[in-house]
Structure formats: structure tokens, C-alpha cells
Amino acid sequence: MNRFYPGKIDGTQTERASYVITKQVVEQCDHLIDLHGGDLDESLRPYSYWTKTGNEKQDQISREMVLAFGLDHIIISADRPKDPQASRYLENTATTRGKPSITAEAGHAGTVETDDLNALVNGCLNVMRYLKMLPGAPSVIEHPVWIEKVVTLASEQTGIFYPLVKRGTYVEQGMKIGYVTDYVGKISFEARAPVAGVALYVCAVPSMTKGATIANIGVVAK
């Protein structure tokens, strides 16, 4: 669904649902937090997105929101669509409409873990303190790891995937982070990190198709 915003009133069921959320939630709100958990095939370490729009006031508020949310890895996103009618993502739908917004992700492989759940709940509560929606002073992450770009490593073969690193591992360029075999166990593709950085996401299931994502590597900003 997070590829169909802002939606269409006369589109598919998903597009119509996205349209209703755009009209009834996004356009009515002052600030927005888009929460994500790890899907069945996603082993991801918790991180947030902070979008730079070029609007100084909006960017400052959203930056303070993402720091208040408290996840210690923050992706700087500067390449999202600029057209409100082609926003694609929920957070970007709000951002292109002038709403300070962030995205937060925590969870992995379709599981419900206490630490991941608490990170999302406590992050929202802390942003609400920052926005004066709740009493008390917000705590702010002081030394986050800023990620300047995310590089995707895709499989060149269909087969069975075997990871060699876990989510959150720091890797060097060229480091072997997994491999794909055919259905009788012969290695058909060695997955090597295209850049140095942190493994934000590693495929969590053995089934792999050609062109599918093996890992996303976050390049740490200098």
C-alpha cells in the first residue's frame, strides 16, 4: 500500500483506501509519523527516515521530531518525489503537503519483539512530548548515526539464499555477506557488499529470485 499514495478516488481498492487516508488523515493533520515493522522477508535494524525538503522551517521541525523519536540510525532522504500528486509514500504525501513528517521502522522477519514494539511506542510518545501534546520534556538522541544514502544489493540468480551477516552489521566494500545456491546446493551467486556501511536490511527468508533484494547497505555520512 505504501507505493500507491496519494491514491485515486476511482482507482483500485488499494488506491481508494490510500485516497481516503490522504484526505481524512494526511490533509487534516499538523504532523505525521509513518510507522513500519519488518515484513516476513525483512530482517532490519531499527532506523528512521528524515526527509530534507528545502523548506528550512519544515525541515527543522521534522529533524527535531526524528531526534525526539530516538532511533539511533537516521537515513537522510533527499530524493523523494516533490509532486504532491505523485508522492507514492505516506510520509512523503504529508511532506509534500507541508506537514513535518518522519518514518520509523522497527521489527524483523514478521515477529513481534518487545524491544521493537517499545521503540515505536516510546518514540511516538516522546515526539508527542516534543509537540506539547503530552506533559514533560522529551529526551533526544544525542549522537545518532546519519545515513547519507542506501545502496541495494540485488541477487543475480534465483535459488536459495544463505546470509553470512546479521542486521546491523558494519561491512566493508567487497565483503561477502551471503550467497545463493541452486536447488541442489551449488553456489550460483556470491553476494558482496557494493559499498562500506551498515547492513540496515538483510533478506530473512531462503527463497530468492533474480533481481530481489538481498540487503540494503546504509552509507554513513561523513
Q: If you had to describe this structure to a student in words, what would you say it looks like?
A:
The protein has 222 residues and is α+β, with helices and mostly antiparallel strands. It folds into two domains: 13-130, Zn peptidases (Aminopeptidase, 3-Layer(aba) Sandwich), CATH 3.40.630.10; 146-220, OB fold (Dihydrolipoamide Acetyltransferase, E2P). It is built from four helices and 13 strands. It has helices at residues 13-24, 56-69, 90-95, 114-130, and strands at residues 32-36, 42-44, 47-51, 73-77, 101-105, 145-154, 159-163, 170-171, 176-181, 187-192, 197-203, 207-208, 213-220. The strands form two sheets. Strands 1, 2, 3, 4, 5, 6, 8, 11 and 13 form a nine-stranded mixed beta sheet that branches. α2 packs across α4 (114-130). The longest helix has 17 residues, at 114-130. The protein starts with 12 loop residues before the first helix and ends with a strand. The model has no long low-confidence stretch (mean pLDDT 95).
